[in-house]
């Protein structure tokens, strides 16, 4: 199994996005003046396993519009085709794309994809809901042209600490798990690498590993209680299985993938539990 980080530009987000205020200010602050972060990567992921090339998310495009709380920094050569080429991969070889959720910086790269696209049924219902449609219009964040993913349900039973899952590969080494919180139907993909470690391609389950350790809900999820419960589940899984945790916007995710560094689930900060390289 080989897993590669593909970087499709960067995004600067408000500090209120990364460190939300409590109560009604949680989302209100996103639209008020405030400082922004340094550029954060927009990662998607390529998995090569048993002769099949899969993508988890597709990254952003140069045509992306900024919103009040996020400023995109993407050039045309950083879009998915360029990111794939930089990794020595051919976009035409992709058999399947799994979307962690339906926000633009994870799905806009679908304009370059001609393969099968999968999205959690719960997430698609949220996308098509009246509120979902209104928010896309207010934020000027349209879906990519021809957006028509196949849906799946998490009907595979428990996987580690996760109560709901779905196997993606025939051998069960690539598994989709329920990580609702950032969006109602958010999922993550866990790959069991050749050394037996779990490599968790976490989308926006959190923005960083620090947020996971802090058990801090984000500023955009509809239900903070659900989000925090998911973070507890992720940490419980990390305690059961050595897990390399890779959020899409964490500046350290690519380095953790390269070194195979797993999460120290019992510590409030830090994760240096397994510094040996992952067999990816």
Would you give an account of this structure?
The longest helix is centred in the C-terminal third of the chain and has 17 residues, at 224-240. The chain has a single domain (2-259), classed as Ribonuclease Z/Hydroxyacylglutathione hydrolase-like (Metallo-beta-lactamase, Chain A). The protein has a 7-stranded mixed beta sheet with strand order 4-1-2-3-5-6-7. The protein is built from 9 helices and 12 strands. The relative contact order is 0.15. The protein is globular, with a radius of gyration of 17 Å. With 280 residues, it is α/β, with parallel strands linked by helices.
Number of helical stretches of at least 4 residues: 9
Q: How widely separated are the two ends?
A: 5 Å
Low-confidence residue ranges? 270-280
The CATH first-level class comes to Alpha Beta
Give the helix level as a range of percent: 10-25%
Give the class from helix and strand content and strand pairing: alpha/beta
Q: What strand order characterises the main sheet? A: 4-1-2-3-5-6-7
Describe the oligomeric state of these chains in a short phrase.
single chain
CATH fold naming: Metallo-beta-lactamase, Chain A
- Cα shape: globular
CATH level-four homologous superfamily name: Ribonuclease Z/Hydroxyacylglutathione hydrolase-like
- Estimated share of beta-strand residues: 15-25%
Count of domain modules: 1
In round numbers, the mean pLDDT is 94
Q: Supply Rg.
A: 17 Å
Order of helices and strands: EHHEEEHEHEHHEEEEEHHEH
Largest sheet data: 7 strands, mixed
Number of strands: 12
């Amino acid at each position: 199994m080989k897993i590669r980080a593909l970087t499709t530009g960067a995004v600067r987000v408000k500090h209120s996005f990364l460190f939300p205020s409590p109560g009604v200010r949680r989302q209100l602050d996103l639209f008020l003046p405030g400082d922004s972060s340094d550029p954060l990567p927009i990662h998607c992921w390529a998995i090569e396993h048993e002769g099949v090339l899969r993508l988890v998310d597709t990254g952003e495009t140069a045509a992306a519009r900024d919103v009040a709380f996020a400023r995109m920094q993407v050039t045309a050569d950083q879009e998915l085709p360029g990111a794939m080429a930089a990794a020595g991969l051919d976009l035409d070889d992709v058999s399947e794309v799994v979307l962690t959720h339906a926000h633009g910086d994870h799905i806009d790269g679908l304009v370059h994809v001609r393969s099968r696209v999968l999205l959690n049924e719960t997430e698609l219902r949220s996308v098509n809901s009246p509120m979902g449609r209104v928010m896309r219009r207010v934020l000027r964040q349209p879906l990519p042209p021809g957006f028509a993913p196949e849906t799946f349900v998490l009907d595979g039973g428990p996987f580690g600490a996760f109560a709901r899952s779905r196997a993606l590969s025939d051998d069960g080494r690539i598994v989709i798990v329920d990580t609702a919180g950032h969006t109602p139907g958010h999922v993550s993909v866990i790959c069991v690498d050749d050394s037996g470690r779990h490599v968790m391609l976490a989308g926006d389950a959190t923005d960083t590993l620090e947020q996971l350790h802090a058990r801090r809900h984000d500023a955009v999820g509809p239900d903070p209680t659900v989000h925090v419960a998911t973070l507890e589940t992720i940490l419980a899984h990390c305690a059961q299985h050595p897990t390399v945790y890779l959020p899409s916007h964490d500046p350290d995710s690519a380095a953790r993938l390269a070194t195979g560094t797993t999460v120290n689930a019992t510590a409030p900060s830090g994760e240096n539990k397994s510094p040996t390289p992952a067999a990816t």
